Amino acid sequence: MKPFVEKLFCVHTGQENRLSGLRIGTERYRASVPLGIELGTFPKLYKTNMEASYRHKLRPHQFASGSLAIRVKHWITMNEPWTFTILGYAEGSFPPRRCSVGAAGECSVGDSGREPYTVAHHIILAHAALVRLYGQNFQVRQYCNMFYEKKIFKSRMITEFNRFMDPLTRGDYPNSMREHAGHRLPKFTEKQTKMIKGSYDFIGLNYYTAIYARNLLNTNGLNRKYREGVPIGPQAASKWLSVYPRGIYYLLLYTKMKYNNPVIYITENDDARIDYYMKHLINVRRANRKGMDVRGFFAWSMFDNFEWTDGYTVRFGI
Question: Which residue numbers are catalytic?
């Protein structure tokens, strides 16, 4: 990858290759699993002092390794925290496959009612600690942010979106979330609240699809994500992905109204290629005309990647 990147950027001057027109964004964590987590110690591990852990593992010179720091304008802390906390520790369908016995996944160990809260809580603290460490040692007014994966169904906004956005904007979880989770949801100290509140320069928002949401205690075999047996839009290459461009418009307006119009970059969005992009960009433009501050749109992705549990069987590269 290095030789390819060097062809796109002027190595000696550190200036971007204007002919390529490309800009680099980089992530510090994207669901890579250290050995301690793979062995199932993640919840316990993240009860340690995260700031000290990051100070040890992410030394300032790592931000500035080689000439990369000159070129990177958008630094990312975490990607899709909801995905690896809920699917990894509540449902057990993603690594490290922890969940309560009898939950959706086939898990031998875990606690679906407690561990997802613990893991997400310390992910938020780790994000804020990294932002502070970066700002103290190597910030030339670049950006540091946290990514969110949203499938925009209003009845689940608290569990999928607000649980991360509220701490970053107001310093604590939504009140309704605290009422529901009770003692299972950890509390931020006063010092931690000050550290996490406002710990971002922009919000990276991953949007793919939407689903119908219904409050049914007994589904009688019905798929609650469908309406009268029909999904919200045509299916793309991935079985879970129904194309619904209008959803990104509603999500952007919701974010604008609830969180005081933060700077947004659309950071993951792709699958049905040209038609998919065109319709989603039209809806992003609609939101911008309503006053939304969307400054960028990233394609997911330039190359095929090793996709979560699907490996290379699902292709996203353009």
Answer: 80, 268
